[in-house]
Design goal:
- The complex is a heterodimer of chains A (107) and B (118).
- Chain A is globular.
- Chain A is built from no helices and nine strands.
- In chain A, strands 1-9-8-3-4 form a five-stranded mixed β-sheet, with no helix packed on it.
- By secondary structure, chain A is an all-beta fold.
- Chain B is an all-beta fold and 118 residues long.
- The chains are: A mainly beta (107), B mainly beta (118).
- Chains A and B meet through strand 3 and strand 4 of A and strand 9 and strand 10 of B.
């Protein structure tokens, strides 16, 4: 299974951009990068996905490097409600979650 | 996005009894459903893959006779924890997947079920 690695935790000031990195150096050519987040005691929430082009939606932007070995999720104006564990996963058949990044947005 | 529901949202049961958890995709048909378990301060651990009309595929270390999965239709999968023990207390989450062409999929998660075995 292709794996991802993320920093265990990050802090961000409210109103500032939060940039969450993810390494996926063993990604295969047809695998998508997906981002989810999980707020305490809730099911994961879909954020965004991409293959090789940068993507943007109402929640976030996804920047994927040209070699596709890493990506960055950007929350442009973080709010306190964005405090959650963020997971970067690949669209392999097993949909395995790593440990994710605990993002804490501080007032 | 699409909605996946789970029922019940929380349940307390006595040791030795069985508990059934339902996972429903409310507005789309799911070709596959997944069941995860999550212990406090840990990530989601995939337990099994449930395909409509066929037997579930269990991950290594997950007892298929203890965690019975039935995927009766494209919108419903059930997980039954049989002879529950306190160590089965956990947060159980399902997801429903609709696979698209080219390796793309849409996966939506349920809100989770908190199981406490006393």
């Amino acid at each position: 299974d292709a794996k991802t690695t993320q920093p265990p935790s990050m802090d961000c000031a409210e109103g500032r951009a939060a940039n969450l990195p993810c390494n996926h150096s063993t990604i295969s050519g047809n695998e998508y990068v997906y981002w989810y987040r999980q707020i305490h005691s809730q099911g994961p929430q879909y954020i965004i996905h991409g293959l090789k082009n940068n993507e943007t939606n109402e929640m976030a932007s996804l920047i994927i490097t040209e070699d596709r070995k890493s990506s960055t999720l950007i929350l442009p104006h973080a709010t306190l409600r964005d405090t959650a564990v963020y997971y970067c996963i690949l669209s392999g058949s097993r949909l395995t979650f790593g440990e994710g990044t605990q993002l804490t947005v501080n007032p | 996005g699409a909605v996946v529901s789970q029922h019940p949202s929380w349940v307390i049961c006595k040791s030795g009894t069985s508990v059934k958890i339902e996972c429903r995709s409310l507005d789309f048909q799911a070709t596959t459903m997944f069941w995860y378990r999550q212990f406090p301060k840990q990530s989601l651990m995939l337990m099994a893959t449930s395909n409509e009309g066929s037997k579930a595929t269990y991950e290594q270390g997950v007892e298929k006779d203890k965690f019975l999965i039935n995927h009766a239709s494209l919108t419903l999968s059930t997980l039954t924890v049989t002879s529950a023990h306190p160590e089965d207390s956990s947060f159980y989450i399902c997801s429903a997947v609709s696979r698209l062409a080219g390796g793309l999929y849409e996966q939506y998660f349920g809100p989770g079920t908190r199981l406490t075995v006393t």
